[in-house]
Design brief:
- GO terms for molecular function: NADP binding; oxidoreductase activity; proton-translocating NAD(P)+ transhydrogenase activity.
- It catalyses: NAD(+) + NADPH + H(+)(in) = NADH + NADP(+) + H(+)(out).
- The transhydrogenation between NADH and NADP is coupled to respiration and ATP hydrolysis and functions as a proton pump across the membrane.
- One of its GO terms (cellular component) is plasma membrane.
- With 380 residues, the protein is an alpha/beta fold.
- It folds into 2 domains: 157 residues, Rossmann fold (3-Layer(aba) Sandwich), CATH 3.40.50.720; 180 residues, NAD(P)-binding Rossmann-like Domain (Rossmann fold), CATH 3.40.50.
- Helix content is 31%, strand content 18%.
- It has 11 helices and 18 strands.
- The strands form 4 sheets. A 7-stranded mixed sheet has the order 3-2-1-4-5-6-18. Strands 11-10-9-12-13-15-14 form a 7-stranded mixed sheet, covered by helices on one side.
Amino acid sequence: MVQQEHGSVTYGVITESNQQESRVALTPEIVTRLKKSNIACVIQQGAGEASQFSDDQYEKAGATVVSRDEVFRRANVFGFINRPQDADLAALPHGSWVVGMLGSFTDQQYVKKLDQAGLTALAMERLPRQLSSAQSMDEMTSQNSVMGYKAALLAADSYGSFFPMMTTAAGTIRPAKVLVLGAGIAGLQAIGTAKRLGAIVTGYDVRPASRQEVESLGARFLDLGLDFSQGQGEGGYARQLTQEEQAQQQAAVDSKAAAFDVVITTAKVPGRRPPLLLTKAGVEGLHRGAVIIDCAASDLGGNVEGSKPGKTVTDNGVIIFGTPDLASGVATTASNLAARNLADVVSHFATAEGMKFDLSEALDDALVVSGRTEGDGGNE
C-alpha cells in the first residue's frame, strides 16, 4: 500500500539508474511550483548532487528527502529523465503513475512490462507538441535545445584550430567552416551557438521551412539541388525519407561535406532509427583533423555511418563523437527545463482526488499503459 504525504498526489523522484546521467527529474524551483498546486514531493537523498542541487535546497523548498526505498513507499507518481529500469519497475507500487521518456515507439516489450507491473505510464515522447497547451510539457524540445548548444561547444573544443577568424603576429587564421545537418530545435541551437563562436556556418534540413529558419540565424543554407517538398512530418518533426530520397541526399551531402572542418548532425526521428546523412564515403572525404558530432548516435544507429556512442578516430584522422547524452553535460539547466516539463504534465492530470485522465483529452494520447479497468474513469 502506498503511504502518501499530505494531499492526494505525491510526486517522487529517485537517482537515475543510468550511470552516465547527471540530470535529475526534480529541482528545488519545481518543488515550490508543485507545492502551490498541492502536490507533495519526495526525492532520494543525493539525487540532485550531479546537477548541483543539494538535499538542503530541496528541503528548504518543501520536499521530503528520504532513501530510495522510502520514495517508492511514499509516492504515487514518479518522474524519470530516462525510463525506469527493471529494478525500478520491480519497486514501483502497483497502481502508481510513471512519467518520462519511455521509448514507447520502438520497444513494445518494455510497454508490456509497464502493463504487467500495473502502472499508468505516460510517455513524454508521445505528447502532441503542436498543441499550445502542451508546449510547456515538451521535453524533447527543451532537451534538444540544450543538446544543440553543447554540440557546438564540444565541436569547438575538439577542433584543432579557432572557430573565429584570428589576426595574429604570425598571420591571419581563417574561421572554421561548420556544417549542421538537421535544422530542428537542436540544429538551430547548434547553428546559433557556432555563429556566436565566430564560425562560418551552413545548415541543411529536408523541411521546406528550414531554409528561412537557417538563414534567419545568419547562416547559409546548403543547396543540394534536390527537392523534398514534403519533408515535414507530423508534429513538426522531419518525416522519414524514402529509400530513393535517402540515397540522393546521402550522395549530395557526401560530396558537399568535404569542404567543411566540422559537421554536426542532429536529425532524429523520435523513437526510430535516425536517417543516415553522412556515409563512410563522406567521412573519408573529410580532411584529417575534421570533427563530426553525431547527436543522433545510439544503439539504433546514427546520422553518420560507423558512428557509435563515444569517441572514434578514423584511419584518415577524422574525429567522430557519438553523443546521445549531450544534454546531461549541461545538467543544471537541462534538469530545470526537464523538471518543468514533467511537473506540468503531472499538474495537468492531478486532481483533488488523485491522478485522473479523460480519454477525450488530446494529451491522453501519451498514455501508453492506462492502469485502468474496464469502465473506470481514471487511476487513483
